[in-house]
Amino acid sequence: MSTPIKSGAFSVYLAAGLATAVAADSAVLRDIENGRRVFATCAACHDPGLPTKTGPDLRGVVGRKSGTVPGFRYSRAMKNARIVWDEATLDAYLAEPQEMMPGNAMPFPGLPLPADRRDLIAYLKTYTP
Ligand code: HEC
Questions:
Q1: Helices then strands (H, E): number in the chain?
Q2: Mean pLDDT across 2-15
Q3: Is residue 48, in this structure, part of any structural domain at all?
Q4: Which atom of ligand 1 is nearest to the CA of 77?
Q5: Cα–Cα distance between 64 and 67 in angstroms, integer?
């Protein structure tokens, strides 16, 4: 009777240790996965495969200067903004595009949830050509 209980407790102990070891990594993966889901709303305009090219190609956008995708016709506001898209600028823009950059031409109201923006930006870091 005592052996099964001991071995059961041992496996629980082992499982807890393993779970702790992978918890950090899987949290990051979960965020990126959620970010990929949120990106579906962006892809309606930003999918580089779209024939209409409604929005500029976002592959490699993190670390890029704003308004610099060759051949895309940006608004004057976006062309003149001269900012670098990093975590802070993307977060502010994606929260309220018109508030952050008045006059830009992205017809998107913004993402109200900070967690969605955080996960989306984590995903965008992995979204490269
Ligand atoms: C309805 C179409 C549409 C949707 C949906 C949309 N965008 Fe855009 N986006 C645009 C357009 C058009 C521009 C160019 C704006 C300008 O020139 O002022 C743009 C510009 C941008 C830029 C600046 C890119 C650069 O090259 O400087 C970023 C970043 C961006 N969008 C991110 C997103 C993200 C992330 C989402 C999803 C949460 C999203 N957009 C949803 C149409 C859209």
A1: 5, 0
A2: 52
A3: yes
A4: 18
A5: 9
